[in-house]
Design a protein that fits this description.
There is one protein chain. Strand 3 and strand 4 form a beta hairpin. The longest helix has about 45 residues. The chain is mainly alpha-helical and about 475 residues long. It is built from 14 helices and 4 strands. The strands form 2 sheets. It has a two-stranded antiparallel sheet with strand order 1-2. The protein has a two-stranded antiparallel sheet with strand order 3-4. Helix 1 packs parallel to helix 12, helix 2 runs parallel beside helix 5 and helix 4 runs antiparallel to helix 5.
């Protein structure tokens, strides 16, 4: 079960297994990845150039945080694009035979770190930005905006430094060797040693070592370092130690994402020996901590923007500006923007948090949903955020839409003019045919003209 079921005798050259299991997911990643990378690269470059123009500390913090959101979402786009390349170009249909090296290799762990840093960087920055905006709106009438000075720069440095440090810690700590007993999921051995097939976890190692050494004192608390030493002693060391590599934290699936869904045999669950069996005794602290942090961030963002909306509307009413068409339009635009921010954050995080919680409580088994949720739902913000937090792309798409509409109207006008010209030509031809009924007709089919008589000539005479 668990990770061992992901790699076994069925993983051969003909099994056809791939990193991304459906064409829809492949298409989604190929489209969303480059779009997120391009959109956010544009946002970051534009904001970075405008930072030096900031005149107040609040504006400096706002632009730096939007830049940080763009960097985080750019990393998500980079992750999706790189994963698509590995899936479709580098591994393709041969992934099954390379799965072991992939899940225990550096490329997968680097992708996992990139995706985790990107998602947490973006989420923490959006949270800090919402708090700063709320604070600025609620104190706008009580304090003079701080000018950009050493104090403002130090404050911005602390905020950005804290967000970056927290995101890096969450992404990198699971790969630190000191914590391998908590995060390493299994071990991959040289395939020529048939004793260990697939990715045996710690429980499997302990069972085998107990049988080999006839020692029931080997418990589930045995460290990976001690297990490695005991395994090495099982083989002849004349040709060097046994080649092995740990299945790292991000190697729980081929997409190399942070592991929110914990299986019952996951190494991060607490374990203890009981009558020769290794049983779970507690849940996973890291997962619950991260779910709690992410839910807290969503609630802070929601409450902050609701407060901004309420405060701004109340301020307009107090100043008697609520009936002003310009102010009313600005308030409606802000309300729409706040609704979009809250709705997109809700759609991207809350369902995922609920499913993860129910899975880890054992109420449902959502293991098969993990890739779908993590690959489709969470990265959506990476494309949406540049359109919400910065005007550059929004203005660009507005101009593009107006240009497209104008071009369509131009084509319609051109076609209408052609039709009108054609109609006029047909009408003119019909008039000519009426005035000259013999034109264009064969003379063989025409009757001979009648010569008028004298009376006829007199009657037609103007005299």
């Amino acid at each position: 079960s668990g990770i061992n079921a992901e790699y076994g005798d069925e993983c051969n050259l003909s099994c056809g297994k791939e990193i991304l299991k459906s064409w829809a997911l492949k298409l989604y990643c190929w489209v969303l990845g480059p779009l997120a990378a391009i959109f956010n690269a544009i946002t970051v470059i534009k904001i970075a150039y405008s930072v030096k123009e900031c005149k107040t500390g609040g504006l400096l913090n706002t632009r730096l945080l939007i830049c940080l959101i763009g960097i985080g979402d750019f990393l998500i786009g980079l992750y999706l694009t790189a994963l698509s390349v590995f899936d479709s170009i580098i591994h393709g249909k041969e992934y099954c035979s390379k799965q072991a090296e992939w899940l225990s290799g550096n490329a997968c762990s680097i992708l996992g770190v990139i995706s985790t840093i990107g998602s947490q960087l973006s989420l923490f920055s959006m949270t800090a930005l919402s708090l700063i905006r709320m604070w600025a709106i609620m104190r706008s009438s009580l304090a003079t905006p701080m000018r950009v000075n050493k104090r403002a720069i130090a404050k911005a440095t602390v905020i950005l430094g804290g967000i970056i440090a927290a995101s890096l810690a969450i992404a990198v700590i699971p790969l630190v060797p000191k914590f391998e007993d908590y995060f390493v999921q299994g071990m991959y051995y040289d395939p020529k040693y048939k004793l260990f097939i697939g990715f045996p976890n710690k429980a499997r190692h302990v069972e085998m070592l107990r049988a080999y050494y006839s020692n029931q004192n080997i418990s589930g608390d045995t460290t990976w370092a001690d297990i490695g030493n005991m395994v090495d002693k099982m083989f002849n060391q004349s040709y060097g130690s046994l080649k092995k590599s740990p299945v790292h934290f991000y190697g729980n699936d081929g997409v190399c994402l942070f592991k929110y869904f914990v299986r019952s045999d996951d190494p991060r669950r607490g374990r203890a020996s009981s009558e020769g069996e290794i049983a779970d005794v507690k849940g996973d602290i890291i997962v619950w901590l991260m779910l709690g942090v992410n839910l807290f961030c969503f609630l802070v963002i929601t409450i902050s923007y609701l407060m901004i909306n309420i405060t701004t509307r109340q301020s307009s009413e107090d100043c008697g500006q609520s009936e002003n068409p310009v102010i009313a339009r600005q308030n409606r635009n802000m309300q729409r923007r706040v609704a979009i921010i809250i709705a997109t954050d809700f759609a991207c995080w809350v369902p995922f948090i609920i499913i993860s919680a129910l899975h880890n409580l054992g109420k449902i088994d959502a293991t098969d949903w993990y890739v779908t949720f993590a690959m489709i739902v969470l990265p959506l913000n990476s494309v949406i955020n540049p359109l919400i937090y910065d005007n550059t792309l929004r203005e660009f798409f507005d101009q593009l839409a107006r240009s497209a509409v104008n071009r369509c109207l131009g084509v319609v006008r051109y076609l209408r003019s052609l039709l009108e010209a054609r109609a006029e030509q047909v009408q003119f031809t019909a008039i000519e045919m009426t005035d000259n009924p013999g034109e264009g007709m064969s003379t063989n089919n025409m009757e001979s003209p009648v010569t008028p008589t004298g009376d006829d000539v007199i009657m037609e005479s103007p005299l």
